[in-house]
Amino acid sequence: MNAIDTRVLPTKRKQVALFSSDPNFKRDVTTRLDALAIYDVRISDAAEFLKGPPADSRPGIIILDLGNGELLGQPGV
Question: Is residue 1 part of a domain?
Fold first, then answer.
């Protein structure tokens, strides 16, 4: 007879990079994704987006909040 395995195997958390200058938006998104327990959220300012991701981590999901659009006027875009 097959018994049910009651052990819970941990899953690898998906990397999320959140780029925003709005503290309320950062808090809301981080709170909701942390509640799901499958995402690891890294927060940076929107201007950091132009520098690219750190060499040691490549996020699978990127959230970019443009806010009022000042980032769009920069030459790096």
Answer: no
Residue 26 lies in a domain: yes
Residue type at 28? D
Element (H, E) at 36: helix 23-36
Rounded CA-CA distance 36/55 in Å is 26
Q: Would you say the pTM of this structure is higher than 0.85?
A: no
DSSP state of 68: T
Q: Is residue 58 part of a domain?
A: yes
In whole angstroms, what is the distance from residue 38 CA to residue 75 CA?
35
Encode pLDDT of 48-70 as tens digits.
888 876 677 788 899 988 887 77
Say how far apart CA 52 and CA 5 lie, in whole Å.
43
